Amino acid sequence: MLYLLISCVSFILVSKSFTNKQAWQQGKLKLFSIGPSNFLVSWFQNSRLYTGLFQPITFQVKQMMAESSSSRLVVENVDQEQQAGHVSLLDLPDLTLECILERLSPSGLCNMAGVCTSMRDRCTSDHFWKKHMKQKWGKLIGAAAYREWELQHMAIARRRNSESDQTKKKSVLDSLFGFLPFCSWVIRPKSQSCRAKSTGATTFSVDSIMSLYLSLERGDFWFPAQVYNRENGNVGFMLSCYDAQLSYDSGTDTFQARYSPYGRRTNEEHIPWDRLRATPVDTPSHMLHVSDCLHDLKPGDHIEIQWRRSKEFPYGWWYGVIGHFDLCDGNENHCHCHCNDIVVLEFSQYTPGSRWRQMMINRKDHREEGNEADGFYGGIRKLYNGEEIAKWKLLWPNQVLE
Fold it and tell me: Pick from 135, 155, 157: which is nearest to 205 by CA?
């Protein structure tokens, strides 16, 4: 089929080139002046068949020959260096090389991964990237973020498989329409083929720790986490923590947040590291958290409780403590508040007498409680970690809220 197509194109071009009578006379004079063989070569170089098909092929063959000669020079130089006694990094013992790579920064590992195939396999290993991941992102990337990452790379894998299947289903007609590119591909120099393969080989696995780390650094991966005092410390969100999708900006070393789509959508930029945390529970922001600490609550305990302004809004986590009843003097030797089914929640950031200062719940039958005027209180989690409690105290407002 290919030969038939070439023959037809050649016949058409030859016939068209002699349809003009003047062109035929000139060609006849040129034939007798330079000879038959030279005439055919000259005619072929000036024809559209040569310029459209064979001229690109000739150019690629010359390029292939030039690159092959340069490759031989590189190999000869390497052989000379080896004969001169130069030691390669790969000649070091595995333990020594591993110690060197462990001291490299993330950018250093990326640079070393581009040296050769062997270094690529070593430098993209999870073994070296776990440390960097833990040092920079360990306190912010939680289980929810890892699940989101797994879902994303699974979607990427499915998309790649779909694209591969579509490529295999190309029709013969499409191949014929792409005849010239096909011919160019057939005679592609070996050096270009090698470069294409090596380019594909340098890509790392999409589910590797290196891939996750670099996606975070570039800001490509929007991951779930929580933001303290959202909207730049708006007084309406003081001492609260809300779910958001975050993206890192390496230029400013800050984050951009997209808050939950439930209720009004809000974006926030330039959020520092100290206003972020990993999501401590798996409960989605629009669902009631199942409290498992109600029977253990006693005055002085530090807690976080879900609260939302209305049913349309997502829950945020608000800081508070367990307080005493009005009739209790707070003396530990005489206090029986922990024996009561009613638990007093106290939010000391608000002034005494404020409607936000206290809330009471039933520890035996706690459900979402509240109304459209005062908002709705949801699940409770008790804080056992001193670091979590200290974090809330650092965020304490400069003045008491009303």
Answer: 157
How many other β-carbons are positioned within 10 Å of the β-carbon of residue 174?
9
**293 contacts: CB under 8 Å, gap ≥ 6:** 303, 380, 381, 382
Burial of 228-260, coded b for 16+ CB within 10 Å and e otherwise, reads bbbeeeeeebbbbbbbbbbbbeeeeeebbbebb
Q: Which residue has the tokens 């403590």?
A: 321
Residue 322, CA distances (Å) to 219, 316, 399 in order: 40, 18, 21
What is the rounded CA–CA span in Å between residue 354 and residue 347? 10
What does the chain come to in residues?
402
Whether the per-residue pLDDT at 154 is higher than 60: the answer is yes
The CA-atom distances, in angstroms, between 169 and each of 161, 166, 174, 176 are: 13, 5, 10, 14
Helix (H) or strand (E) holding 228: strand 223-228
Tokens of 52: 């459209």
| % of the chain beyond a pLDDT of 70 | 64
Which of 391, 243, 378 shows the shortest CA–CA distance to 310? 378
Q: What is the pLDDT of residue 199?
A: 38
